[in-house]
Amino acid sequence: MEENIFMKIIRREIPAEIVYEDDDTLAFLDIKPNNPGHTLVIPKEPARNVFDISEASWLAVMKTVRLLAPAVRAAVEADGLNIYMNNEAAAFQEIFHPHVHLIPRFKEDGFSHFPQRSYAPGEMEGIAKRMRAALGK
Fold first, then answer.
1. Which is the catalytic residue, given 38, 97, 99, 101?
2. Degrees to nearest 5, angle at CA 87 with 83 and 93
3. Which of 1, 3, 80, 121 would give a disulfide with 105, using CB separation of 3.0 to 4.6 Å?
């Protein structure tokens, strides 16, 4: 597995503002936050992203995300919270270790939604069929 900054944070080789840790996960404030309180939750087990993370690590990360979400919101008195993950460079992943962003949101913070598009006729059905085939159903 590729060496990265998150593995160095896990090993305490570089500093981070850690807000939570258990046997399987670590959570710390993002050094370049979208909003104050922007927190990253990572598994301690090495992986690249959602495509190769073990089920046990994924479940541990999600448990930690659920635990921290209300704490992040309360700490900065946010109006809401985005939870998201970038997977591979095309989706803007820059550090190739799984990490889930908890981003506090405020009514007037200036962020916008992802653009929305419409499906071409028959496109939605075709994609759903291929997804079911990939799942073996």
1. 99
2. 90
3. 80
Give yes or no for residue 1 having a pLDDT over 60: no
Helices (H), 40-101: 55-76
Is 97 a residue of the active site?
A: no
Q: Which two tokens stand for residue 28?
A: 């710390």
> Can you tell me the distance from the alpha carbon of 55 to that of 40, in angstroms, rounded to the nearest whole number?
19
Across residues 58-62, what is the average pLDDT?
98
Residue 94, burial from CB neighbour count under 10 angstroms (0-12, 13-18, 19+):
exposed
Cα–Cα dist 90/99, whole Å: 16
The encoded tokens of residue 82 equal 């985005």
